[in-house]
């Protein structure tokens, strides 16, 4: 054990009601919206295939030139209520909003920066309108906040001189002020998801990351903070030098997921994955033909995969500069919502089932011990193999949507063939298992002598 002043503050998973709500929410929406939506991946006639919210970097645009985009910021089609209804109909229980991305443009009228909505043709407090509208739909609001701020001349990638150190301490004070401002203006916010915290300057100031976490938790009791903010005394990030998770949930699964067989360690802590629909695009990009666009079932697979391993999934949307969403994203939200309407019982407030994963799909476990089989790959054998943990047997199985009884045949100790539904549902479907914990029953099957 190394003594740490700025290491992990939690021992194991937080068990308070705010964290339980975070966990039970399971499905979130990411909203990446900023000046980058205006050029949409194109600069001076050249279209860049990289992340559209990084266009300033790809096209090497100086900050003062980039911030002139503010004069064009006028999302006349923005309607917070429509955005909230879209998230509601998708079945999202929370929304993570980019309050400020790396570019430094603030979606709220911050008094600590001149780069805010207040200094654009569309003066309104967009963040405030979104918070109100989502909350009115019963949707929790989480704030994405980029510490790295390309618009602030005090930002430093590293601390190599006394001047760097003085400038960066001014920058950290500016950041504290913005965080306090966000907490004061929008006290219903439930979470801060920090990004832009990988630079050496932050790793050398682990104390500040611990202070920022503590400050927000004092201002907003119950608020959750992601691991990505945190660096310990030695600059170790996410997990401290003693291997303990910092923050309240692991947030390293960005556009990737843990392996459901090899990476079961993630079930020991809370975690949240986030994903894009085109591989690289978080912000609005005008040309989605440049990369593969995931189908609704491919997005749903990732949502279920995360929940089956005790994690949350946040699906990204990149609104247009005019404040509307592209048709593909509206269609995706509708398709996910339709599926969640039928099968959400196997997702919301569900967790890792501790059953070994099988080829046909994923397991989740509900609050009352029921186990769900979410079937993505129905085998030609028409039998879904289930191997139960020692001492657990299957009592009964039914199709979640119709309650149709599903035949279960025990094939050997702790192994069963669960039949597929009479009529193929034609979409990923859910079988609910009623399991029995058989205390101490002697198995009827003998081990082979080899
Ligand atoms: C290398 C890299 C840095 C930052 C990112 C940001 N994190 C995502 C959540 C988006 O905000 C993306 O811009 C992505 C890749």
Q: What order do the helices and strands come in, and which of them pair?
A:
Layout: H1 17-25, E1 27-31, E2 42-43, E3 46-47, H2 55-58, H3 63-66, H4 80-90, E4 94-100, H5 126-136, E5 140-146, H6 162-185, E6 191-195, H7 200-203, H8 206-219, E7 224-225, E8 271-275, H9 296-308, E9 311-317, H10 327-343, E10 361-365, E11 371-375, E12 383-387, E13 392-399, E14 408-412, E15 415-419, E16 429-437
Parallel strand pairs: 1-4, 1-9, 4-5, 5-6, 6-7, 8-9
Antiparallel strand pairs: 2-3, 10-11, 11-16, 12-15, 13-16, 14-15
Quick structural overview:
This protein is α/β, with parallel strands linked by helices and 450 residues long. 25% of the residues lie in helices and 19% in strands.
Report on this model:
With 450 residues, the chain is of the alpha/beta class. It is built from 10 helices and 16 strands. The chain is globular, with a radius of gyration of 24 Å. The model has no long low-confidence stretch (mean pLDDT 97). The protein binds the ligand Cc1ccc([C@@H]2N[C@@H](C)[C@@H](O)[C@H]2O)cc1. Ligand K80 is lined by residues 32, 51, 53-54, 195, 254, 274, 282. The site of the ligand Cc1ccc([C@@H]2N[C@@H](C)[C@@H](O)[C@H]2O)cc1 has 8 residues, from loops.
